[in-house]
Structures are given as structure tokens and as C-alpha cells.
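U., I forgot to send this yesterday:
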Amino acid sequence: MNTVIKKVTYKQIADAVGISKSLLQYHYPQKSQLMADLMNVNFNQWLKTIPEGDLYTRLTAFLLMFFDFISTNKAVNGLMTEIIANNELFNAFMTFFSNWLADNNFVKHDDNKVKAALLFAVSGGLQLYRFKDSLMVPVEQVTHTIIATLLTIVGKSSQLIDSTFHNAETLYQQLRIKGWQLVY
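Result:
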């Protein structure tokens, strides 16, 4: 598959950030490493915008902001759609996302039930995002599907699911005013 990532050259990236191509290749022999670092920097920056609180509310607000951000940013939307459609890139993204969730205490490294449920829900949710236009699914419904699936699999009550959505929606509306930026 001839992807956008493959089409972008080291020289184009180096020129855009103002360094030499050889320096860029020295630090990032594979573009996938560069992509992982860019995702990590951005995800961590975005996470800082979400105040401490209930874990599921924070995760739901993060996903609401994430899907809002990628759906309103044409370049990011194209890249994310490409990642979802390409098995190799999708697997790399899911591995990154799984590790990032554990590193940021959304899931414990050894909590296999929650980790599996979350990866299942996010994986399916990303595919739903990919086909949202043809299925006429609002972008907010993608997050609701992911979180409802996750919380149902791990045995949470419908009352907890409802309160999580309510609290996350309130937080999301506050966060949306400030928005997110790409860091690169």
C-alpha cells in the first residue's frame, strides 16, 4: 500500500523542522519510530488538558476530544483514516495506544481484562470512525460506543455508564473551548 507516510521523505520532514536529513535519520532510522514519538508527545500534551478525576470520565473526555480533533483537522483526519485502514499501521497504533494507556495509569500493565476490553472497544470504535460518514454515525457516537462497550465488558452498571457520559460531556464542552494543537 502506497501510504502518505511512505510518500513523505526524510528530506521533507527534515526541511520542515529545520534539521539535516542525516541527523533525522540517525535519530529515527524508521519513520514508524518518528510517528510513535509524535503520537506520544501529542497524546501526553493533550492529556495534560484533562483535569484529574474519575478515570472513566477522563478517558471518555479524552476520546471525545480526540475524535473531535481528528474529525475537524483535515490532515490529521486523513492520516488517522490511513492508519485505521492499513493493518500494519493500525497494529502499531494500537500497540502504542495500549502502552500509552498503561503508562498514564488508565489501565494497569497487568490488568489484562480491562486492557483487552479497552483494546477491543477502541479497535472497533476506530473502525466505526473510519466508516462514520457512510454509516451516518455522529463522531460523538464513536466515543459513546467505545466507552459503553468497555464499561459493559468490565461489568460496570448502567448508572455508572450514564454518569460517566454525563460528566465527560460536561468536561468535554469545557475543554473544547480551548481545543488542542498539534505539537511537532
